Amino acid sequence: MVSQVAVRSSEVAMSRARLPVQAATRRAVDCDFGSPVIETIRQQGYVLRVGRLTFHLAREFGFCYGVDDALDLAYEARRRFAGRTIYLTGEIIHNPTVNARLAALGIHQLENIADVTPQDVVVIPAFGLPASDLEQLRNVGCTLVDTTCGSVVHVWKRVERYARDGFTTIIHGKHDHEETTATRSQVLAIPGGRYVVVRDLQETEQLASVITGLQPAATLRDFFARAASPGFNPTRDLGKIGLANQTTMLASESLAIAERLRAAMTVRYGEDETPFRFRSFDTICSATQVRQDAVAELLKRPLDLLVVVGGYNSSNTGHLCEMAAAVCPTYHIATPDCIVSAELIRHKPAFQAQEIESSGWLPPGRLNIGLTSGASTPDRALGDTILRLVQAAGECPPQSWTARQVADFDPVPAG
């Protein structure tokens, strides 16, 4: 992921300029979110034995470049604009420990744009911001620090092109996710822009049935009212469609959705017409893809269970859990303290919305434990999770696990 970064003030409201990040700022970010435990495991081939536990770490996990960049910019804004009020328009990323840390630094969640003054600083999250909100902030004349991920900006360019060419954008994403909300606004910013949001292959199948004529559009009135642009007319607006993705969706499902929509357009308009009526471009971010690939590779090992660490509202983290749950017992935890003991864990199961408690989750005897984390999860959270697991298994109390002692543990060859 690359990040489109801007600082805008009343003097340079429409210009874009890089906010230089000092080396001291990067060190502060690393100090807050890095982990010597994780660094040690990396150096030892991503596999580490501690007593009866053998940890297998995914080869790709944790912060992506875009998240690193967003945090560098937020920290730099706090350093550079000391004494000024700094707002964040929403969660900078979907991770509770990261957002709590920014709050502790005095970066306040913005409740109402009307509260912003020209003297204030406003940080735009990595997900981006709806076009109307951005315009309001520009009109205020405050300083804007834009951490919108470059992969998200790439999606925006794609949907703008669809709209300008008269195509309705089909967005594979979660309708109420901040990124999808911002993407929808980019479509509507183009005169005549239209969209439909499909969350998964099941919703895509419903849309395809309307395109092919197997189902009248009236039967999906509620779906279109919830998931489509204002005034959407299926009869008029599904003649030319272009697919884009929320960048953190499951890549395999996005490919399946593209194939299903292409097939539906072919049934409706014929093979010769389809290239002129259907467009698709893979906008899944590379960091999301490599983390999914790393989990797929990790699952080839004989694991007794797998722990996924990350915010429950993190789309990319949730998809890692869904992939793993099909293969072995998988526990998606938001924070390390969700591991209460060897008997009890709080976690969010795959494809469920709420956290639950499970008992008897950490069996006795030797265990192979897989570990990964989403692109918005700091290494510290994953390292602390390992400490909690070791403590729960009765192998070593976390307060005694220093960087030197971690290095003394017996590593297991990665093969």
Automatic annotation (TrEMBL):
Matching Gene3D superfamilies: 3.40.50.11270, 4-hydroxy-3-methylbut-2-enyl diphosphate reductase, catalytic domain (3.40.1010.20)
Keywords: 4Fe-4S, Iron, Iron-sulfur, Metal-binding, Oxidoreductase
Stored InterPro entries: LytB/IspH
Keyword Oxidoreductase attached: yes
EC assignment: 1.17.7.4
GO MF annotation terms: 4-hydroxy-3-methylbut-2-enyl diphosphate reductase activity
Keyword Ligase tagged: no
Originating organism: Chloracidobacterium validum
Superkingdom as given in the UniProt entry: Bacteria
Pathway: Isoprenoid biosynthesis; dimethylallyl diphosphate biosynthesis; dimethylallyl diphosphate from (2E)-4-hydroxy-3-methylbutenyl diphosphate: step 1/1; Isoprenoid biosynthesis; isopentenyl diphosphate biosynthesis via DXP pathway; isopentenyl diphosphate from 1-deoxy-D-xylulose 5-phosphate: step 6/6
Cofactor(s) listed in the protein's UniProt record: [4Fe-4S] cluster
Protein name: 4-hydroxy-3-methylbut-2-enyl diphosphate reductase
